[in-house]
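Collaboration report, partner site 2.

Our partner group contributed sequences for two proteins of shared interest, and the home lab folded both. The records are reproduced in the order in which they were received, starting with the first partner submission.
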Amino acid sequence: MTLSHGSNIGRYEIRSQLGAGGMGEVYQARDPKINRDVAIKVLPAAFSSDADRLRRFEQEVQATGKLNHPNILAVYDVETHNGAPYVVYELLEGETLRERLRGAAVSTRKAVDFASQIANGLSAAHGKGIVHRDLKPDNIFITNDGHVKILDFGLAKLVESSSDTDNQTDVLTRKANTDPGAVMGTAGYMSPEQVRGRPVDHRTDIFSFGAVFYEMLSGKRAFRGDSAIETLNAILKEDPVDLSTTNPNIAPALERVVSHCLEKSPDRRFQSATDIAFALESLSDVTSHPSLVTRSELRTGARWSRERIIWMVVCAILLLALSALAFSHFSRSTAAAPLVRLTLAGPENATYPAHVSISPDGSRVVFVATNPAGKRVLWMRPLDSVDAKPLEGTDDAVAPFWSPDGRFIGYFSNRKLLKIDASGGQPQTICDAAEDRGGTWNRDGIILFGGLEGVYRVSAQGGTPTLATKAGEKEEAHRWPYFLPDGRHFLFLADAETKEDHHVRIGSLDSQETEILFNAISRLEFAAGYLLYVNQGTLVAHPFDTGTRKLSGEPKVLAANILDVGQNHEFDFSVSETGTLTYQVGSPNSQLTWFDRTGKKLSTVGEVRPYVGAVLSRDGKTVATSLADADGRVADIWLVDLTRDNLITRLTFEPSVEADPAWSPDGKQLVFGSNRSGGGKIDLYLKAAGGASNDQLVFSSDSTKFPTSWSRDGKFILFENWAPKSKGAIWTLSLVDNKASPLFQTTAYDQFQAQISPNGRYVAYTSNESGKSDVFVQPFAATGEKWRISSEGAGLPLWRDDGKELYYLTFEGKLMAVDIGESPKFQPSVPRQLFQANVKAANGLCYGAAPDGQRFLINTSIQNTGSTTMTIVLNWTAAVKQ
């Protein structure tokens, strides 16, 4: 297929052809919707003839489209045209790394720069579970301003053999094409596990990275034989020629980095691309190898004059004298403290440690974990002790923080702000707190905590909170405040409707006025002249002057894959005033998984992804879910077809938050919440499950609304209504006359997560009227009757399709079941535990029940091994000063 100038492919207007090759044709085009030039690669129509192959390709490209990193080519769209699939990319100007090399090495400094950018891009992709599988110079693009872009994430999967009996070697060893969109593999860059046809993970990219890095430094391939077979044998059995042989100016430390990437066994390589980036950054001026000047001069026949030697001797004597004087003057000083990393295991008798916070003096850590009784409480662990002890009475605790003297710990529980003595005792309530998104405490006894209307201020002795800041028109909330050392100024995250409007702001106790510091989507802390925050899952330290309140320089990488322990960007790290850092690593991903009633795992659904929610259609054939973006924000609604090999398709496409879908009873429509209309609110929209129709706004108001349930007769939608300065309430929207009204009387407590029974007579919901969240049932037609179903902290009720059983989840992830009788009136049985689920919860439903109640589809958290241990770093600033 060849497209002419002025023709259209989809909504894109073709401007010119940029290239063509075996994998298709590349065009420059114009996107009139957002008025920008793009690159379009049209793949051969033959690729669409294999439905399974095309489906896997579309899934991979859609996942890659979620990546947002400066070193990865941005994917805007994937569609088909006249039966041929095409992909829309950002348009780049420059050349591939293959074209830059042209058979010769680049300078060492430039090679390290390019390699660092490649490693950062790989780290971002691997953090999302995406492996390139075909990294080579042809798939690395250097822009005119020196930025590196990794190309063709996702397309590599397209050329994988679709049959186990196909000759994979032949597919992956064809001649490389220098077209920036090419995806053909090249034998010289394959990992040993690829050559053997074994399963691969992110470490195969690390091997390929090593081969590319070697070629940049030496100008020669790391592995190359006279034939493809000989090249493959070299990868399996031979080591490349030492870099120092091909380029005598290479520093030994740099050569070790390359060799470590090219280990034959994946277990012996660098275990993450972040480790590579850190290793490269840790090398001080790799071009300043001690042999550089002398060898260069010897090669050119340069001679040292007698005068030059004399001056060097004089300088050496002066240097020795000054060194002796300095040693004498500073003889009492101690050597710089070393950088030390160690791990701290969670308690043996507790599960899911998270929300770690280190004391100001760096001697103790407090964290949240579930005790043997199944309650989520605070635990205290002195770093000079081998044991952690629970702080009794801190049930349902989240987001702990310290008083500046280390005597008390503030925390949140059941919409209240509390404090407890660090040595134990009875917790004390400070005030009501609608949000639990972070607190900070200064030396004058003032506590700040986040809220929907702004940052609130309250005395640590208790009282009525007042606003210290006021959220702006485009802002959803002010969260994660953190006092600067002067105790008057503070930083916080201004949460917004769009990623572009998220900002870290600076406020003061003297005024509600604030100023923007920079764009970020993370909680943050300050220590030793640095702001610590998370960017694309990576913990960084950015130099910050508290006097001028300005950032300087570039952020330094401290650790990758920081665990996101909750919602609204609560990444799990903490830093003390004394140079001690603690953090947890883990994956934000989850796996949709089927279990039977005993908790036996039956099967998994689709791939591991950052799913948010899992809402089954009534017939149990389709799952509605959302996917979180790179910064943990819910982005769009996706559908998983369980009858078509778990095919996942995107339902919504707006550049806004789309979340909390609920199915119509016939499974043909979904209602969901979206903030696309702005103003800090969420409205209700309808869309056909087939995706053909436009989104239909069905209810708008100044409040935030989340749909939860659709009546079996199709007449009513139940939704949560969170009006400003009001408690959460359950409302009904009549689809007969489009009128909305409260379902129950307004109360002094929150009611939410409502689910109407299949017969339409009852509503199960969650309320905190007992002091903690529990499940209740009331008649749909209010009669004054009410039944409390749970008593130990629970939520997310769900009816079986016949209404004879009600399920809910406890705070500890236990799936509970209650038999429901109606003779002569509503009769719930005593709740019984079905099984313990490792569930990734969300505002909406995170699990579903098959119509017969014999199977449960659960959005199951994927726990990395690091998520049960805390990393402690002593003298962490040594890492950023290297």
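Second partner submission, folded after the first:
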Amino acid sequence: MRFKLPILTLVALSAASPLGATPTPDFPFPIYGNESVAATDNAWGFTVNPAAGGRRYPAELMLSYSALEPKGNVYRGALSHDGAGVVISIPDDQPRAWLLGFGGGPDKLRAGFSFTRLYENGGSGRASDYDFGLLSRPKPWLSLGGTANHIFQPRFLGQLFERQYTMGLGLRPFGLSRTQADKLGSTLTLTADLLMAEGASASQARLRFGAEVEAGHGLVLRGAIQDHGGFQLGIGLLGNDAGYHGSAAYAEDKDRLAMNHALSMHQGEERNAFGESRKRRVAVVPVQGVLGDDALTSVTVTDGATGTRGVAAIHQQLERALEDPRTRGVLLELGGAANMAQLEELRPRVAALRHAGKPVVAYMEQGGGRGDFYLAAACSRVVASEEALFMGLGLRSEHRYYKSLLADWGVKVDRASYGKYKSAWRNYSVDSTTAADREAIERNLDVSQELFVASVARDRGVERQRLLTALDGRPWTSQDLTRLGLVDSVGYREDALRILGGLASLGRSPRTVDLARTRQARHSWTEPTPIAVVYATGAIETGRSGNDLFLGAYMGSSTIVGQLESAFRNPDVRAVVFRVESTGGSGLASNLIDHAVQRLKRETKKPLIVSMGSVAGSGGYYIAAHADRIYCDRYTRTGSIGVVTIKPSFERWYAKHDVRQDDFERGRYMRGTSAARDWDRTLQAVADSSVMDFYRVFVSKVADGRKMDWSAVDAVAQGRVWMGEDAVERKLVDEIGGLEQAIAEARRRAGVPPGEKIRILEYRRPRPWLLERLAGSAMASVWSRSAHLPDANAVYYLADADADE
């Protein structure tokens, strides 16, 4: 039996049956030599299974030439980009066609659809054809595919295209190893496809078995054999961003029926590329601005416009640089990097690169601050430009008090709190720093200074006193800091690259790459997601997450609870990491989140690990207390177990301006809720009593979560903010470590082997609409939340943020 050669629509037009006849089906036209509805992931895959097309590369352009025996030549082009594709077919003397395909969905079940338009060559004949495909990859070693072709059975040039159905199975034997699936899983791929026409007999079904072997260094061997005779052989040479694919199709008697040549250009680097040694390079990674778990922009009436830059992209680039054999070193471009806790989590990534023999050079073009030097000290070399200026390398914490100013305006802030260290909003109700606040501030400054000095002096090999000289607050030039041992060389970016090239043995002008823009080809069919990370960033409020003109970007309890529900209920997730970076907020919102944490742990039996970012204070600590294990960085400000509430009063302002107010009320203490009345002793006592009740509850929650006595928690509570190691010593935190260590602990508890490649399922802050980001909520809603007597909806667990970064 001779091998039939369909053009594009999966049925050979030359062999199409007359109207009313049941056709003998045949497989799609082979370009690579082992096409399968379960495994063809490139741009050509849209013609095989629209659900699988374009999965391997973010974008690909393929051009092919086929010499058919005896029909002539066929020229094809295929273009794919993020789940969409276009394929054009131009034969010498056959109908021409173009296809438009789309695919989308998760790995477990992906769907695709394609539309094909056929044109008679030199005539007026036209026809439209539609195909549908499904793809399921539940495991790294298993792929299931299926297609329905010619759904509406089009007629073209007197021929009828009967519906056809294809089912495919793909197996990757090496993917069965959990620890080797990522490295070796795609080395061998076996496929089996069954094709049947609607109404055809079982004897007319077609079976095809295929195989693909990655021989290494960009060499791929392919082949397929059909049960009714005929076979194909193929070869691929894969470059970093281009490739050649050749194949030949043979009949049962070994007569060659077709010879195919294809060239492809693609985005998405191949990890085992032909000639990859010539592609060795260094990565350029900018680290600038205030770093945070999420990229947030807040506009508030008190602070104006503030924002953080998401640190995840930096972690991903450094991890990619570590794993990528082509990347031989990293240039860190530092400029105003801040948030010491986040920077501390980057330092182990730098250390891992250096340990792997990949040097890291820090370059500071405009100068830098304390955070820049903290990260730069971990690098192999530090380079600063000639006119760079370094200022404010020491520590300073400013606290202003507005009681007298407000009194001049006729405004009084009534305040109730429990915990002598609970300092939030105290600057509106007192005229100077209290002894307790002074004690806490001095302690945290001392801890921050010692952490910085000990780490930088050790990394740079300089004496403590010389380093302390640089931290005295004077402006310093690059030359000054070179003499002090904090900078190795004065030069420009090309000088930093020259130094890095020498350290990496890549010469004076190494190739550079932006790994944030350079995506990788996708080899694995799927990666398991046994670990989920839920990010809780910002002040805590009830309702959905949003942006407020008073609080800035805040987390909403309903949003966080919904994300926790989704993470815990996901059957693939076996452990959850709760990443907290918050100064606190609403007592009710904190309680709702904490209740959800306890309920979900109890109902699902899944562990919860907490990772604290730069701050997890008050409500931020409340929602973390019932975790199975808590991690924090050495610079994390945590605790602040205390309660405070405030209410502004304009009674004297109204009196100053001859505003008369008559009160009519039912309820002895209703006067305390008015923004036009000061609290008297009775109302102050009521507020103090209410706050004390909430404090007892807060301490009880912590005692229950941390398995401590109430009195032991009370002794370290009182609104006191503790730095990381102090918090560990007082048993508020279990261990020093960042998000990476928390995920490692979650992996251990979930039974995930250390070498298994997994994908973290992330639940991040929902992106708001532009108008919401800019405008926030109305000021009336802000005051309505703060102008009241304390109750369950009103308590704010707010911790003061020390200016130590």
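Feedback sent to the partner group on the second submission included the following. Confidence is low (pLDDT under 50) at residues 1-20, 773-805. DSSP finds 19 helices and 40 strands in the chain.
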